[in-house]
Design a protein that fits this description.
single chain, about 110 residues, alpha+beta, Arc Repressor Mutant, subunit A, 3 strands, elongated, transcription regulation, Metal_resp_trans_reg, DNA-binding transcription factor activity, DNA-binding
């Protein structure tokens, strides 16, 4: 690549990078997924909708821990809850979440080869 082409590319990138506010949202999303408990919840909810008590049984954690982590995931719009009587059943907010997690999982597994 010639110097002039490289300079044009650098100028273009400088003018068209993702805005900082949007990058901060991305960082927050990755931080949310960067916790073992929250990631385990995401993977469980990828299979089916689950209540706090079901997640407690599956993950072997206290109800307060699960509820706290679900609250954080709800704040980040990663999970949604639907009330059913006394219980709230949680599910992934959309399929993009599982796509993100699966892509990262595939990358990690590829690095181990």
């Amino acid at each position: 690549m010639e110097d002039s082409q490289h300079l044009e590319l650098v100028t273009h990138l400088k003018d068209h990078l993702v805005p900082t506010a949007e990058l901060e949202d991305l960082v927050s999303l990755f931080k949310s997924l960067g916790d073992l408990t929250r990631l385990r919840i995401i993977l469980a909810l990828a299979q089916t909708t689950l209540s706090v008590s079901e997640l407690t049984d599956i993950l072997g954690m206290s109800q307060s821990t699960i509820s706290h982590q679900l609250g954080l995931l709800k704040q980040m719009n990663l999970v949604k809850g639907t009330r059913s009587g006394k219980n709230i059943h949680y599910r992934l907010a959309d399929e993009h979440i599982l796509t993100i997690v699966q892509t990262v999982k595939d990358h990690v597994e590829e690095q181990k080869k």
